[in-house]
Design goal:
308 residues, mainly beta, Jelly Rolls, Immunoglobulin-like, five-stranded antiparallel beta sheet, 17 strands
Length: 308
Amino acid sequence: MNKKISFTTVVALTLATFAGAFTTWRGDTEKVETGLDNDTQTGGYWFDYNDSADKGLSRVEWPVKKGNESDTNSLQPIIEYCHGICGHVVLSGAALSYDPFVGIGFNVVGEASADDKTPVAANATDWEGIFITYSSTLAAVLELGLGDVVDKSLEYDNPVAKLPKSTDGTTKQIRWEDFAQAGWGKGEKISGPEAAAKLVSIKFKIQAKDGTEGNFHIFEIGALSNPEAIKVFRASPSVNAVVSGRKVSFTGIASSAAVEIINLRGQIVKKGSVQGTSALDLSALDAGVYVVRASGKSVDFSGKIVLK
């Protein structure tokens, strides 16, 4: 059973009625531009949470220390390090009556005002749904947060969509109608589209048995109404990464491009440049799955490679 999480999200009485384009987040900033921000400009910032409100001990072990000069809980250092959000999950239930959990999420609108920190709800049905690109050694869910008042009325049985574990990385496209309550709660019932009409937050959540550990990496998240939702990774249609032995080269790149090779913990393990058919030597890397990114004057490519 999932209990109340350790941060406050009380839904505002009046839904936000403004709307804008959801800019696909690609692991480059600490703020997701949902297009639903209000004047406070407090929406979209990534936060982490866990089961500590019920004395659980679950945590995410980050690859670098979180926090910056303005917010000790900021995930900006992790995002800059991982080119996304990545970490090692340790689930510890202690005396919990339900399976322990951790999560990462963002509010879609932000706070009601400078004096009222209550996160505002918005009608996000125009998004049609959410797509997310991630890797995880543990199964996860994408959960629709509706604020403390509504969440409590649901007995925290919020609509979720299952995200299967994927060590190679995958993209899941989830329509609002694909979100559903797990069914264990005895509170009010709500469908995915109904939840999207009064959405407060979107959360990537991992919940499993006590003692479970694993790794995750969130690469991208965006709205299905964005045409780019059909892409697994961003790429120019003519660009592709080609692995030959322990070298990677590219097709479709005419000019010089900077290349980064990133492991599934978000660490940049190799940097270099290519031009035309030239290749980058990866002989020093271990076998496994990596994300490759190439950027230049005429290319902006991300993809997945496998070294054997």
